[in-house]
Protein backbone atom coordinates (compact mmCIF):
# COMPACT_ATOMS: atom_id res chain seq x y z
CA UNK A 1 0.00 0.00 0.00
CA UNK A 2 2.67 2.52 1.00
CA UNK A 3 4.87 1.76 -1.98
CA UNK A 4 1.90 2.11 -4.34
CA UNK A 5 0.94 5.47 -2.82
CA UNK A 6 4.58 6.54 -3.10
CA UNK A 7 4.65 5.75 -6.84
CA UNK A 8 1.27 7.39 -7.45
CA UNK A 9 2.45 10.61 -5.78
CA UNK A 10 5.04 10.89 -8.57
CA UNK A 11 2.92 9.39 -11.34
CA UNK A 12 0.12 11.91 -10.79
CA UNK A 13 2.47 14.87 -10.38
CA UNK A 14 2.19 15.57 -6.65
CA UNK A 15 5.96 15.09 -6.44
CA UNK A 16 8.78 15.33 -8.95
CA UNK A 17 11.51 12.71 -9.29
CA UNK A 18 15.13 13.71 -8.72
CA UNK A 19 17.48 13.52 -11.68
CA UNK A 20 18.76 10.12 -12.80
CA UNK A 21 22.21 11.14 -11.54
CA UNK A 22 20.86 11.95 -8.07
CA UNK A 23 18.93 8.67 -7.88
CA UNK A 24 21.99 6.68 -8.97
CA UNK A 25 24.17 8.44 -6.38
CA UNK A 26 21.63 7.73 -3.65
CA UNK A 27 21.46 4.05 -4.64
CA UNK A 28 25.25 3.71 -4.66
CA UNK A 29 25.47 5.38 -1.23
CA UNK A 30 22.73 3.14 0.17
CA UNK A 31 24.49 -0.02 -1.07
CA UNK A 32 27.81 1.21 0.38
CA UNK A 33 26.09 1.80 3.71
CA UNK A 34 24.60 -1.70 3.71
CA UNK A 35 27.96 -3.27 2.83
CA UNK A 36 29.56 -1.31 5.68
CA UNK A 37 26.91 -2.76 8.02
CA UNK A 38 27.97 -6.27 7.04
CA UNK A 39 25.38 -7.10 4.40
CA UNK A 40 26.60 -8.99 1.36
CA UNK A 41 25.83 -7.58 -2.09
CA UNK A 42 23.15 -10.22 -2.67
CA UNK A 43 21.45 -9.13 0.58
CA UNK A 44 21.16 -5.45 -0.34
CA UNK A 45 17.40 -5.75 -0.85
CA UNK A 46 16.80 -7.21 2.63
CA UNK A 47 15.29 -4.80 5.14
CA UNK A 48 15.05 -6.87 8.30
CA UNK A 49 14.96 -4.59 11.33
CA UNK A 50 15.20 -1.54 9.05
CA UNK A 51 11.74 -2.10 7.58
CA UNK A 52 9.98 0.67 9.52
CA UNK A 53 12.83 3.07 8.76
CA UNK A 54 12.36 2.30 5.05
CA UNK A 55 8.61 2.93 5.27
CA UNK A 56 9.21 6.20 7.11
CA UNK A 57 11.70 7.35 4.46
CA UNK A 58 9.17 6.60 1.71
CA UNK A 59 6.36 8.40 3.52
CA UNK A 60 8.49 11.45 4.31
CA UNK A 61 9.94 11.65 0.80
CA UNK A 62 6.53 11.49 -0.89
CA UNK A 63 4.76 13.47 1.85
CA UNK A 64 2.20 10.71 2.38
CA UNK A 65 0.81 9.02 5.47
CA UNK A 66 3.08 6.30 6.83
CA UNK A 67 1.85 2.82 7.68
CA UNK A 68 0.98 2.13 11.29
CA UNK A 69 3.90 0.72 13.31
CA UNK A 70 1.81 -2.32 14.21
CA UNK A 71 1.95 -3.47 10.58
CA UNK A 72 5.77 -3.50 10.53
CA UNK A 73 5.81 -5.24 13.92
CA UNK A 74 3.34 -7.84 12.67
CA UNK A 75 5.41 -8.43 9.53
CA UNK A 76 8.52 -8.92 11.66
CA UNK A 77 6.73 -11.38 13.94
CA UNK A 78 5.37 -13.26 10.93
CA UNK A 79 8.86 -13.50 9.44
CA UNK A 80 10.23 -14.86 12.71
CA UNK A 81 7.45 -17.44 12.92
CA UNK A 82 8.10 -18.44 9.31
CA UNK A 83 11.73 -19.14 10.20
CA UNK A 84 10.86 -20.97 13.43
CA UNK A 85 7.89 -23.03 12.28
CA UNK A 86 7.76 -23.35 8.51
CA UNK A 87 5.09 -26.04 8.49
CA UNK A 88 2.53 -24.28 10.69
CA UNK A 89 3.23 -20.53 10.70
CA UNK A 90 0.21 -19.85 8.46
CA UNK A 91 -2.08 -21.19 11.18
CA UNK A 92 -1.22 -18.32 13.53
CA UNK A 93 -3.99 -15.79 14.12
CA UNK A 94 -3.35 -12.24 15.30
CA UNK A 95 -5.61 -9.44 16.47
CA UNK A 96 -4.59 -5.82 16.00
CA UNK A 97 -5.31 -3.87 19.19
CA UNK A 98 -4.24 -0.38 18.12
CA UNK A 99 -1.74 1.36 15.85
CA UNK A 100 1.16 0.01 17.92
CA UNK A 101 -0.01 -3.31 19.35
CA UNK A 102 -1.14 -6.77 18.29
CA UNK A 103 -1.69 -10.03 20.15
CA UNK A 104 -1.49 -13.61 19.03
CA UNK A 105 -4.96 -15.12 19.44
CA UNK A 106 -4.12 -18.84 19.18
UniProtKB/TrEMBL annotation:
InterPro entries: FAD/NAD-bd_sf (IPR036188)
Name the record gives this protein: Uncharacterized protein
Amino acid sequence: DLQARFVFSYFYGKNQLPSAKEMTEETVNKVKSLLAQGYKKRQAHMLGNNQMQYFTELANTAQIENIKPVMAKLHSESSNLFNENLLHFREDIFKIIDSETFVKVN
